[in-house]
User: What shape does this take?
Amino acid sequence: MQLLRNFATVGAFTAASRVLGFARDILVAALLGAGPVADAFFVAFKLPNLFRRLFAEGAFNSAFVPLFARVRAEEGETGAETFASSVLSWLLIVLLVLTTIAELFTPFFIFVLAPGFAADSKVDLAVLFTRICFPYLMAMSLVAFLSGILNTLDRFAAAAFAPVLLNIVMISALGFAAFAGMDQENAGYVLAWGVFAAGLAQVVLLAVAVRRIGVRLRLPRPRPSPRLKRLLILGLPGVAAGGITQINIVVGTIIASFWPAAVSHLYYADRLYQLPLGIVGIALGVALLPDLSRRLRNGDVGGALWTQNRAFEFALMLTLPAAAALIVVPLEIVVTLFERGAFDREDAALTAAAVAAYGFGLPAFVLIKVFSPAYFAREDTATPMLYAGISMLVNVGGSIVLARLLAPQGLPHVGIAAATSIAGWVNAILLFVGLLRRGDFKPDPLLWSRALGFLAASLALMIGAVLIARGLDGWFFSAGLLQAVAALAILVGGSALIFALVCEMSGAIGVRDVMRALRRR
Assistant: This one.
């Protein structure tokens, strides 16, 4: 089935990107640690990285893809190229103005993103790094636009490879800094320029890919039109709805800036749970939207419902075991991946506590990616935006309250992570109930039975993972890196085996059965 092939393409490249991202973050932890330079860089990278996730991972496409697909169906390739060229002209003007304003008023942006830096020397570094990194925002917006064209035409490979290229460039910058023996501040400076270069490389990659499939984009004089107005009406709430998880993370950064190193600990924890979120949630969301848009445009409502059920099922099968592992053995994972150089055991323990809190919300973050396309494919971005707004209020209030409650124990960042997870569940439940009430999603009996089986298998995995981790305690915490890596491999493999066996015993089926089901029409 086309959905499976598209998911596999996006998922495979996303997995490669996340693996390289871990390599990048291991180098960042070793060179920058969790101190003031790291805090300054993470805040500087937060704004353009937020737009990367908002745009490149689905929110821009939530508005552009259905409209581009409709124009192409009604007016053919020429009409679609004319529409896309008009969008490009307006997009460039908006981005140039926004980038100019941001470069001029960078200190204000830093104050908004990290008000806790205001009385700290970190603010000067954050301003410098942000001014270097900010053009990456412009690049990612263009990447999102080009990705929307490619995804609509079922060409997912180049767009999915773009984040891989980002990590390759950033790893090269970090490798140069390490080879040159730079101190933390200079290494951060080189890394910021690596972000800038990575943005340019991604735009070039996708521009070439779009041209190779025969789409000829021009830069006509920007003129208003009904379709552009429709894109704006759909796009603005789509950004809020599709990227609520990322917006909540930014809120967490703002609050965390008031405590030393809390920004860094949240960043490293975020990177860990983003691996399964990226491979499963983002890949499914990107692949689902064009598929659902096509089915609904052709009047295949039954096929759309079947696709949603199987996507829900597939998401649970891959997400629940990952969440279970992050909740029960986060310290073992963090120690193996990050504890070296400037990143010590205390940093690992503080990061692991946030990982467990994020793990609780991982299934919700993925389900948001599964439910949202059902709204976007029907050109409804207002309803998800409303639910996202409610979720954001929960996140802001929860972050402030929980951070203050846990601050005396030195764990304010854990309260922020927990609030983000709670907000994610609020958003996912609202989306799910909304679809049920509208009749746009009907869980079939097969979904319910498999979901219960996956839940039972995840509980068994949690027990097994704790027992395996205790048996390998010395390898994780007292031996060298190679032994820790071997222990982590055994832990992951053993846990996956437990999950698979319980799935088979409970009748929840395995990966092979799900793939066979996805091939059915």
User: Anything to note?
Assistant: The mean pLDDT is 82. The two ends are 8 Å apart (CA to CA). Residues 2-443 form one domain. The longest helix spans residues 59-104.
